[in-house]
Design brief:
elongated; single chain; Dihydrolipoamide Transferase; Chloramphenicol Acetyltransferase; 33% helix; four-stranded antiparallel beta sheet; 3 domains; 412 residues; OB fold (Dihydrolipoamide Acetyltransferase, E2P)
Length: 412
């Protein structure tokens, strides 16, 4: 019986996806739920697993092919037996049978397997992949292998130039630019291209304006210091700043619903829930997983979920559902040392909050100059539907909640 392997249903915001790495080849045995191929979308890399055990009978689309939702990509035969691969003879035996060895090599040699990025580099540089040694699984040629091959060629060329020139032949004084000034061309990942598209869309569509304020973090830092050990002992998670900011944002959004809204054509959609996007870094770029119903979860659960987002973002294990939606976003450039920035909207949301580095600064309190840990806050918003007054007062509400955390408990 043959079982179809299809692309899973993609969200409406994801038009298509790319097959980037088949882990099985036709004739290989597969087990139910075993990963067959990695599928890259605009947001995340997914694993397509085997729906049943059997033998991979056919692959309809190879590495680098673009596919859409519910498209057939492979067939699994549940009744077939895996193809036994012929064992090659030891080198010593083949040496005694040169003709037989040559025939065997001719029949068993296959074309090199290339990753999509490696294939593109090979085509751009007009290379023969047979001469490139692959370091990936099953000797798959990766992008790094192609780059290393190109660099080796440049090094060999440079070594030839540096050899003493024969008599009566002038030696050039200047090394050509391609050797002295190397360049590397790497195609954008789907995620990077999608991020660029959405950010440009936000700039072209929304009337983006940014307002700033400065918050005294002394109260939050004192509270964290006082209860840090007890909190960590009870919940097995560190008490960070993100839980305070998330809760402060939720309370401010309750006061200013238009900032929790989104634009749909000529309509404004007011959301009666609070799904907060938390920007986290990953090897593929910035991703924004969604902290859903942030108004209904505790400080400990907020910290736990954010830590889980960060860990799985690095592993590429976030799901499409976790990256879809959101009514408001928070980005923390302070972890990288940013003192001030103007974040860009994440459409169709109407606002995003930027956190920054905490620095000790002199401030005036009760007529005296004192040193306090201060942080700049930046709120970028869509001026088409958010008035400047609402944006400024929203940021003031966050400032007040952080400078007096008891407000968040009393919801005032």
């Amino acid at each position: 019986m043959q079982i179809e392997v299809k692309v899973p249903n993609l969200p409406e915001s994801v038009a298509d996806a790319t097959l980037i790495n088949w882990h099985k080849q036709p004739g290989d045995a597969v087990q139910r739920d075993e990963n067959l191929v990695d599928l890259e979308t605009d947001k995340v890399v997914l694993e397509i697993t085997a729906p049943d055990s059997g033998v991979l009978a056919d692959i309809k689309h190879g590495d680098g092919d673009t596919v859409v939702s519910d498209e057939l990509i492979a067939l699994i035969d549940t009744d077939a037996q895996p193809v036994k691969k012929e064992k090659t003879e030891p080198a010593s035996t083949r040496a005694d049978k040169p003709a037989e060895a040559a025939a065997m090599n001719a029949t068993t040699t296959t074309a090199p397997i290339l990753s999509p990025a490696a294939r593109k580099l090979v085509q751009e540089n007009n290379l023969d992949p047979v001469h490139i040694k692959g370091s990936g699984r099953d000797k798959r040629i990766t992008k790094a292998d192609v780059l290393a091959y190109l660099q080796q060629g440049r090094d060999d060329e440079r070594a030839k130039r540096e050899q003493p020139a024969p008599e009566n032949i002038p030696t050039p004084d200047v090394i050509p630019n391609d050797a002295a000034r190397p360049e590397q061309r790497v195609p954008m990942s789907r995620l990077r291209a999608r991020v660029a598209e959405r950010l440009k869309q936000a700039q072209n569509t929304a009337a983006i304006l940014t307002t700033f304020n400065e918050v005294n973090m002394n109260a939050v830092m004192t509270l964290r210091e006082k209860y840090r050990d007890q909190f960590e002992k009870k919940y097995q998670i560190r008490l960070g700043f993100m839980s305070f900011f998330t809760r402060a944002v939720v309370e401010a959004l309750k006061q200013f619903p238009v900032i929790n809204a989104s634009v749909d054509g000529e309509d404004i959609v007011y959301h009666g829930y609070f799904d907060i996007g938390i920007a986290v870094g990953s090897p593929r770029g910035l991703v924004v997983p969604i902290l859903r119903d942030a108004d209904k979860i505790s400080f400990a659960e907020i910290e736990t979920r954010i830590r889980d987002f960060g860990q799985r973002a690095k592993q590429g294990k976030l799901s499409l559902e976790e990256l879809t939606g959101g009514t408001f976003s928070i980005t923390n450039g302070g972890v990288f040392g940013s003192l001030l920035s103007t974040p860009i909207l994440n459409p169709p949301q109407t606002a995003i909050l930027g956190m920054h580095k905490i620095e000790d600064k002199p401030v005036v309190e009760n007529g005296e100059i004192v040193i306090r840990p201060m942080m700049y806050l930046a709120l970028s918003y869509d001026h088409r539907i958010v008035d400047g007054q609402d944006a400024v007062l929203f940021l003031v509400a966050i400032k007040q909640a952080l400078e007096d955390p008891s407000r968040m408990l009393l919801e005032i």
